[in-house]
Specification:
Jelly Rolls; 30% strand; six-stranded antiparallel β-sheet; 650 residues; alpha+beta; single chain
């Protein structure tokens, strides 16, 4: 999920003049340091030229000299799992001690919003994780440690990040990645060692933003963006000012044909259409309309709210919005990449009345679905100073008016604006600061934002995996990922299935694994609630492939090959022991002949293979399975793990 950013142009000096020592932020009290490493790195900053020494309570030691910029990196040999330990460091007269350090396995948890989704009460446009109260209450494992990298974009690889290692309380678990926590919890229970989880994710982001410049240049296709980025690091000020000015003019022009006074309480909107909010434009009868829609609501507030500062929460708005309260602009996300950013605006007390309030929102959609894409609980007003007072719900009928279509508007101003989806932006800001930390592996939940480029994802995603492995310098470490779940994208014509197919192809990359989620998605919610199953299935791969539990079933059925047998096609699978269909015959199979026309197919299980056929196809040449974006098929193996999307002619 995307966040509102504050870009800071100047960076404070890292190295004071007197004797000093400061470790990179990832090295803190309560951390987990990777076990059984001959040379686990620790790095940071000290007085230039100073000798930095480290001594661990388990007996290992190491030293390094700080360079002219004060940077140093030393290594320690680490034994097996255990702790708590201390590590004492010194540089001249400066000393520092790391306390309550555990030795165990460190996993990086990354991706977009489905990895970002918290264990606890989500809000902000997400539905809550199944049984979140119970899961969070049972989450205070003292030998699981949590670190969340704060969101940051950067044009160059950062040397440090922000975050805190936590010994989790119930509240800490609620605020941590649900998939990451459930994954780590199972590993801790089953393997019995400390587990360190580093959550580094950003909703609504693309794979290329998580890849380094070197990795993207090796992949190809991004040289222009990277060259522009290199140049803009030197001259971004003037360009940014021009874009901001053009953007202001663009949004001001949107009001040229607007009804006069539509943002104020005195305006008569009785002839406007009425609709329940929240909701997407399709529910308003707008179909695939892209352009401007104006929405407003009149309401009274409790008398004691008058004059008090409020928080206006609207959830995500697809794509851009400008929002007014009693005619005063209180906020807006006026950028195209803000479609899934929850809106939260401050309403000054001077604008708040007990009687006769109006909220007016101008929504601009540039493609795909438009509108307020959240649950009713997330559309509300709250007192800014009182968390103990119930929120005032705005989930009620609003008035709306269709405006100009996107084709009548001038092109949205852009000059290569740098954001979270710019190539390298998140690798630089949120992965580079972790390199070359000792880790066991990584888990990844991403792909929805690359859905329309599934064919490119076939190479882009494996390239990112290789890029991370090269950066961390620890060989082909385990990399386990989640296949995107069923969801009705509206205009999808096979793109979601092609993305899933590309993810399955990534299994050809050494030491990878894929958690299939065809049975735990929600066609109406891109953020499915059953994150326990997702974390569990990732953990199955780790337990079997990383921790040696070879008797464990860890994958659902994966298509291997097809053979044409007259009017039939026989499909063969891996991980198909106990192959069966839940509730009836195997569903969501299709078959085609040489004319390219697809028809629904009958499917029959035959041992660990499936035979498909159709009376409408006399000479079949290809078959496919669960090719619809929101398909929820019923094919499983004996371990209850679902089969992946596939086609035989991809």
């Amino acid at each position: 999920m995307l966040r509102t950013l504050l870009l800071v142009g100047a960076v404070s000096a890292l190295v004071p003049a007197q004797d000093s020592i400061r470790l990179a932020t990832i090295f803190q009290d309560n951390m987990v340091l990777q076990r059984e490493k001959k040379a686990a790195p620790l790095w940071g900053w000290a007085t230039a030229g100073a000798k930095v020494t480290a001594k661990a309570s388990w007996g290992a030691g190491g030293s390094a000299q700080a360079d002219a910029d004060g940077r140093f990196r030393l290594t320690l040999q680490t034994p097996g799992a255990g702790g708590p330990h201390t590590i004492d460091l010194s540089a001249g007269k400066a000393t520092h001690q790391l306390k309550n350090v555990l030795l165990g396995d460190v996993w990086v948890c990354s991706g977009q919003s489905n990895m970002e989704m918290k264990t606890g009460r989500c809000g902000d446009g997400f539905n809550d994780v199944v049984d979140w109260k119970k899961e969070a209450a049972a989450g205070a494992y003292k030998r699981i440690r949590l670190f969340t990298v704060r969101n940051k974009i950067s044009k160059v690889p950062e040397r440090d990040c922000s975050g805190t290692w936590l010994v989790p309380t119930e509240a800490d678990v609620r605020d941590f990645s649900a998939v990451g926590f459930f994954f780590g919890r199972i590993l801790h229970r089953e393997v019995g060692i400390p587990v360190g989880l580093i959550s580094s994710e950003w909703g609504g982001t693309v794979c290329e933003s998580w890849t380094s410049s070197a990795g993207l240049r090796k992949h190809g296709g991004y040289d222009v963006a990277l060259d522009t980025l290199d140049a803009s690091a030197q001259s971004q000020g003037d360009a940014a000012r021009k874009v901001r000015a053009a953007s202001r003019s663009w949004f001001e022009a949107l009001e040229e044909k607007a009804p006069e006074g539509w943002k104020t309480n005195g305006f008569d909107a009785s002839k406007w259409n009425e609709v329940a909010v929240p909701g997407l434009w399709k529910a308003m009868g707008l179909g695939d309309f892209d352009g401007i829609v104006r929405q407003r609501i009149n309401f009274d507030l409790p008398s004691d709210w008058e004059g008090q500062e409020l928080l206006l929460e609207l959830g995500p708005i697809d794509d851009m919005d400008t929002t007014w309260f009693n005619g005063r602009r209180v906020g807006g996300m006026e950028e195209r990449q803000a479609w899934n950013v929850p809106r939260r605006y401050v309403v000054p007390g001077a604008s708040v009345k007990a009687q006769g309030n109006v909220i007016a929102i101008r929504v601009v959609d540039t493609g795909g679905g438009g509108g307020l894409s959240t649950s009713p609980d997330n559309v509300r007003l709250r007192l800014a100073s009182r968390s103990d007072v119930d929120a005032f719900s705005l989930a009620r009928p609003w008035r709306w008016l269709k405006g100009r279509p996107i084709g009548d508007l001038k092109r949205f101003p852009s000059a290569g604006r740098f954001g979270a989806n710019h190539p390298t932006a998140l690798y630089n800001g949120m992965i580079a600061p972790l390199v070359p930390l000792g880790i066991t592996g990584a888990i990844w939940y991403q792909g929805e934002s690359n859905r329309e480029r599934g064919h490119e994802y076939r190479t882009l995603f494996p390239n990112m995996i290789t890029d991370w492995r090269n950066a961390f310098g620890q060989g082909d470490f385990p990399f386990y990922f989640v296949q995107i779940a069923p969801y009705n994208y509206g205009s999808d014509t096979g793109q979601a299935a092609e993305l899933r197919e590309a993810q399955m192809m990534a299994l050809k990359t050494k030491n990878t694994g894929m958690a299939i989620t065809m049975d735990v998605g929600n066609p109406r919610d891109i953020h499915p609630k059953n994150k326990v199953a997702v974390g569990q299935r990732l953990a199955f791969w780790a337990l079997a492939r990383t921790y040696g539990k070879r008797d464990l079933a860890y994958s659902g059925p994966l298509y291997r090959e097809a053979k044409v047998e007259g009017k039939l096609i026989r499909l063969h699978f891996d991980h198909a022991r106990g192959l069966h269909a839940k509730e009836g015959k195997p569903s969501h199979f299709e078959i085609r002949g040489a004319d390219g026309k697809w028809f629904a197919a009958e499917a029959r299980i035959d041992g660990e293979s499936i035979v498909v056929f159709s009376e409408k196809v006399a000479t079949p040449v290809a078959a496919r399975f669960a090719w619809g974006a929101a398909d929820e098929p019923n094919l499983f193996n004996g371990a209850g793990l679902p089969a992946s999307t596939f086609r035989t002619d991809g």
